[in-house]
Specification:
Layout: H1 2-18, H2 26-51, H3 61-77, H4 81-91, H5 101-123
Helix pairs in contact: 1-2, 1-4, 1-5, 2-3, 2-5
């Protein structure tokens, strides 16, 4: 959960910097965490299907995306949890928390997609 909160914080920062989610910056963090979670769930489903002969349930991609984003939005909006996370990370002085949000978000997606690619190559051979 610590990594999800950090990615949420960086997405929250992006939402504030870009002014695209000016009224509701929590949405910027939710979208970043939602895409990251979706990629990692896909990786886990590929691994489960390969090792345990598990066939994932057939869910419409729009319904699945809606469920993930809505559940994350409710989680981070509940009692101002997203704002509290952002305030906590703003108070921390370690240099890792001051990295550019674009670098953190891009790096996490590249790691997740790279892992998905490695697992996909391994499963298809």
């Amino acid at each position: 959960m610590l990594l999800c909160n950090y990615l949420f914080y960086k997405g929250y920062e992006l939402g504030i910097k870009n002014r695209s989610h000016e009224g509701y910056p929590v949405l910027g963090g939710v979208l970043v965490v939602g895409m990251w979670v979706t990629c990692n769930v896909g990786t886990l489903l590929l691994l489960l299907s390969y090792f345990f002969n598990f066939s994932p349930p057939r869910i419409n991609r729009y319904i699945g995306s809606f469920v993930i984003v809505t559940s994350l939005l409710i989680y981070y909006s509940y009692k101002g949890r997203g704002r509290k996370i952002a305030e906590r990370y703003n108070q921390m002085s370690h240099p890792i928390y001051r990295l550019n949000p674009y670098i953190v978000v891009f790096g996490s997606f590249m790691l997740s997609l790279g892992l998905l690619m490695i697992v996909g190559t391994f499963v298809n051979t």
